[in-house]
Amino acid sequence: MEMDNVKLYRELVLRVRQGEQGAQDRLAAGIRGPLQAYVYRITMRDDLTQDIVQESLLEMFKILGKLSDTDRFWPWLCKIALNKIRNHHRIQQRRKQAILSKAEVDRSMERAQHGLENLVTEEFKQIVRSTMDKLQPNQRAVLSMRCYENMSYAQIAEIMDSTELNVRLMFYRGKKQLQKYLSRHGFGRGALISALVIFGKMTAPDTATAAGITVLPSAVEVGAVAATIGALTSKTAVVSLTAVGIITAGAIVAHSPLSGTAGIATNENGTAQVLPADASNNHEADENWFFYPEGPQGPVMMRLIRRDDKGQSFCQWLQNDDGSYYYETGSNTVHITAHRNYNEDLSVRRLPTDSAALTGFLNKIEGRSVHIAELPNHTGNMLIVTGSNGTDQKILRLIRNYDVLQEEHFQYSWPAAARRVDGRDTTQTQGYCWFTVAGTLGGQDVKGTGFVPLYYNASKTRPAWVSIQAGSRRFFDNGNTAVILGQTGNLMKSFPGGTFLKGLSRPWMGLHTIDTVRRDAAEFRVPFEIGYIDGRKKAQITLKMNTDEMVYVIDLDHDKVETVISQSADGRETGRLDFSYFKDPPRTDLAQPPTLVQTGSARESLDTLWLFNLSQGKVMQ
What we know:
- Helix content is 33%, strand content 23%.
- By secondary structure, the protein is an alpha+beta fold.
- The chain folds into 3 domains: 3-222, no CATH class; 256-422, no CATH class; 428-616, outer membrane lipoprotein receptor (LolB), chain A, CATH 2.50.20.
- The radius of gyration is 28 Å and the shape is elongated.
């Protein structure tokens, strides 16, 4: 807050205490606007802001006599308001936060600088609006006090009843979340300061205040200690790092995985480890980053970089928890794609966690020898960095329990001025869809519905499920449980969760559908062939099981299964399933996933893909 305002409020506070007539009204009128801006930046809701401001002003006058230092009036009032907000959230903690409406922000923008629309596009304002709304209230509080109230971390810590280090950590994580959300829309590092300035102007109490809002780079710095600890998400990791002396009184001993040295990690017991450095220093090698948030058999995020003979990157793929991006260096363009990355020669995407048996089978099918260095036994979250030369893939670094999604490794690395081209449709931007399937298989009529999260982030709140009726049997799978139910709903068989999701589109796993289908088949050692069709817009995969074949037609650009055809070895069609995808539920009862009344404890397993078994009638025997 400006010094002139500090002096003005101090004088008004003294006059209120002296009982001067009209002083209370002048103080309330003068402080309401700044207080309203402060509260709104935390709550992002007009109605709640008005309530909090009114309650805070009443509380202010009630306990004004307890304020010992009038120079600290504004931080003192901020603390009162923050406590009111916290109390509200404690009451409402089990209710979903209302989404910030455009009308609310438009009303706030009326108070801001009228020329704002000349500075930024409406698209960017919408993005800033939505990204700030996604932050936690305490993160918005720290950002607001630091960037718009020009408070020190020590002052903020006092207001929030916290330590300075914790405040720095909250600011760091809030800043990283902002960068992460902005990067999902293709904005680079330089957009952070711009977004903070725009948000400050949008929420300013008046035109004059909006015109004076700036955010200096120094305001978003947190220091080396907070930055390093902020990269670690578990409390045990911080404790263990302190215990072994990595965190010292004045310095941090740490090496970023982005450098050529070792990274900090923790094992399952929370013990700090420094892992081996790069095994290779070949600048011509591709550098591939793989992150497994749920362990080696779960979804994967990828960051693929290719370099020229001078070590300069010339193209980049980024697939994180909420999108897929491709950066063209020559045109300085970021393409936000509707599909996961796949190899143009249609070879199977290999992963550093692949077993020797799986690698050997894929090598045999594809007629080439790809060597992947064997990993030690591992569980938990992992970040794996590999380099590839020809057919060899070397493990350069392995880091356990490192949440890289909070860091820049899986966000972006392109210039702030890069042009953005968004190739997604409204369904893909939404991040999830429903599907229906209909046809015949194994001599039975088949129809069903399902839900597909398109990205890992969406799968955490909206998990995949499928419910398919084949004859008198119902196949249901929600990722945790897979069952076959009889005509009356009786439980017939139970399988491991995910059994009936295999062989279908599973984009939230981080791989293109042509890779998940083939890797699902390879898991059961089912041979396959693949080729382009329809002018390279689609791919056709043929799975071969004895005398039977199953043909998949996959839309490459939209990353989904269109058709599955069962046929004999001579090409005679014996069954067909057609898939249709929808942005909204095709039926109102599908807005929520179906509930499963009966589950089985004894779980069976299949010897091949379930669709093969269904076509042959084996899965129900």
